[in-house]
Amino acid sequence: MSVLRAVAAGVLLSWTAGAWAADPASAAYDATGETRGSPHRGGTLRLTADGSAGTLDPQINYNTQYMQLFSCVYDQLVTYRKARGRDGDTIVPDLVEALPTVSPDGLTWTMRLRPNVLFSDGRTLRAQDVVASFRRIFKVGSPTAKTYYGAIAGADACLDHPGTCTLPGVEGDDATGAITIRLSRPDGEFLQKLSFPHATILPADTPTHDLGNTPAPTTGPYRIVSYDPNAGMMLDRNPHFHVFSAHAQPDGFVDAIDYRFGLSDEAQVSAVERGVFDWMLDPKPADRLGELGAEHTAQTHIERLFGMYYLSMNMHEKPFTSALVRQAVNDAVDRHVMTILAGGGAIADPLCQMVPAGLPGSDAPCFYGRDASLEHPRAAWAGPDMARARGLIARSGEAGAHITLVVSNRASELNMGVYIRNLLQSLGFVVDVRPVSEALVLSYTQNSGNHIQISLARWFADYPSASNFLDDLFGCENFVPNSDASVNSSGFCDAHAQDLMTRASLEHDPARSAALWADANAAIMRAAPAAPLIQMHLVDLVSARLGNYFYTDLYHMLFSGVWVQ
User: Fold this and answer.
1) Does the residue 44 lie in any domain?
2) Which pLDDT tens digit goes with each residue over 153-167?
3) Which of 45, 75, 349, 459 has its CA at 20 to 30 Å from residue 65's CA atom?
4) What pTM value is reported for the model?
5) Is 298 a member of any domain?
6) Looking at the domain assignment, is residue 405 inside a domain?
7) Rounded distance, CA 236 to CA 542, Å?
8) CATH code of the domain covering residue 414
């Protein structure tokens, strides 16, 4: 197709691993996690992105852009260790002294707050702040209230009547700092869910509505001091922060973070190359990747991502009510083209099932494309099968239907949208593309009241588990009609697949759990509520003056771990 030829002509595909900078071996912090006394302490870290990511409310925002930022601003009871590589996949105590003690039946979790932790407004963290914060998850309608915290005793009543939520399953004693969380049913991943940013602990008097552009007091090394979603954000040091855990929340090197919005991806690359900014958020344009590898090797880092692009097809909106149409899209899409549109084989891999490589359950077979079928799947995707796709469309009787494809207005995704539009047109549909602001596209496509037929989506792991891609995106309870927080935008709900996912999440044997996740993955892909496209790697570009590049699997470049002098 013409879009493929145009992109392929502008992309350098001769990258090698040696073209990318290695992670520095030096440690970021001393054993205490402090940066005081370091010659690298001070200065302003300058960040840029093409747009903001919406609300500053850490219990509502579900965008990786701000979750990355929030990792050095807010804290949870437990968190993932601030460390490079696999070491960063380990959960450690954060605001509590030790990991929770769990009863033999898995229903009672007890822990104790660290003493003398202060919020950025000078108030002391208390047990009642914890109790109120968990209630607030339900009162503000956090996107993960049901999926992550629905097992807490009393959660059902809070979900039904959030305004009067008391959540009796969370108790705290201000005198001793003791915290008790009681569950109504076991949850094999509850520890991981306690580490997620939506479980951020805020002062008890934090308003029980979306904070919008108003920052909440923080416990991390930085606080947000100003925010204009149309222009930028400023952070400075939390004057009341002290390192209470070097693994959970180390000190920051820079004194301030200046985050500006409004530059295109092309302009961002040029600005970072010139040292105007120290880091850029957005995907690097395909036509600049060869330049980065050849001329800015020491400033360019390529890292693994537990993340993917996929097409979400709404099973309640025609023509995607037909399984034949959904299967045809899976057969027809050329995942190799998608890797080129993403930047080439060095930073994207074709993906034919819904769990990224490296996670349990990712070894499900491929049912679609050349030489694969529901009856005889392949181990890996081998290429598109347009002939079979057109046959499925003919059998469906849906040829000629009008389709609107929703995509983010980011340049890279607009390019992907053009290809997908052309593909759907070649299958006999009438198609247009509707770009939506990056800050709004997730909530817009999740709300069934908007009658989205198909959308280009990207999804990243909240923690290292297949549940983030299977249960989150296709679990029955995650389809909430007419809600901006309905993560299951396809509306898929299948009793067999749900049973497999539930059993996998409760299974303590890693091998057995992985097998159950793979079975659930296969069951979902047979029904084809989505078309997985590519698994992404992250290309990070930093300024020449930025030192100690520090990357973690979940929150990517750690802003508190790098220095600029």
Assistant:
1) no
2) 999 999 999 999 999
3) 349
4) 0.81
5) no
6) yes
7) 20
8) 3.10.105.10
